[in-house]
Amino acid sequence: MPGQLFFLLLSLSAVQVRCSLIDDATAKLETLRQTVLSSITLAENHLNDLSYDFGVYAVNVKTKGILSIQTGEDEVTSELDALKALGESAGVDVSYCFGAREEYLTNLPGVVIEELEQCILGNAQEASKISSSIQYIVDIKINKVDALQFQLELCDPDSEACIKPIVQEIELETINIPNSISTQIVRANGLFDELEVSVQSCSDLKVSQYTSSTSVVLKDITQCVNSIIG
User: Fold this and answer.
1) pLDDT in tens, 155-194
2) Predicted TM-score (pTM) above 0.70
3) Which of 1, 11, 27, 47 maximizes the CB count within 10 A of its CB?
4) What phi and psi, each to the nearest 5 degrees, are found at residue 193?
């Protein structure tokens, strides 16, 4: 009888060990799943914030750039009016000096503003692509968890040889997957920083082009008027 009791207790102990092994694996897998889902959610929120902040930044840069061009346009108009008044006060016809040049100056703001908007739009489209791409990379991290669950379900609950390697991989991925997601977020931060620089360059370049182009044409008109007035 004591011998039978011993073997019964031994058997129960073995069953408990086996149950403990599969239960432990299942619990660790669930912990991994929740950890990954939490990391994915945080990443999604961060990417949404990046996209929103970039959108606000791009609009502000575009608005300031357009305002600078429009301010320059007002200054050009004032200078043209002053040159025309100069000819009138001198009693001479200086209309020859304006013509196509004035038409060019009139059309230039619209052309440059359109180019500025298209340049910024290109960066906005690139931002959307980057966000979607990184979001996809982050989202599919859950597939690894699903794969581990599938492998675990194939194991015999009594098979330590089958379960233990999977548990080891689960423990490893509990560290690796969140780190991988964090790496993608760092990458996103860098790419969005570069896009902000590019957006500012769009504005700076177009404002500079407008200023230099109008300066050249106004100088040409001024020289023409002065040559007629004598």
Assistant:
1) 999 899 999 999 999 999 999 999 999 999 999 999 999 9
2) yes
3) 47
4) -60, -45
Contacts 24+ apart (CB under 8 A), 211-220: 211/72, 213/108, 214/72, 214/76, 214/105, 214/108, 217/101, 217/104, 217/105, 218/76, 218/79, 218/80, 218/105, 220/101
Q: What is the DSSP letter of 157?
A: T
Pair 114, 227: CB distance under 8 Å: no
Q: How far apart are CA 222 and CA 101, in angstroms?
A: 11
**Do 39 and 181 form a contact (C-beta atoms < 8 A)?**
yes
Q: What are phi and psi of 98, to 5 degrees?
A: -100, -90
Residue/partner pairs of 158-164 with CB below 8 Å, 24 or more apart: 158/18, 160/18, 160/21, 163/21, 163/22, 163/25, 164/21
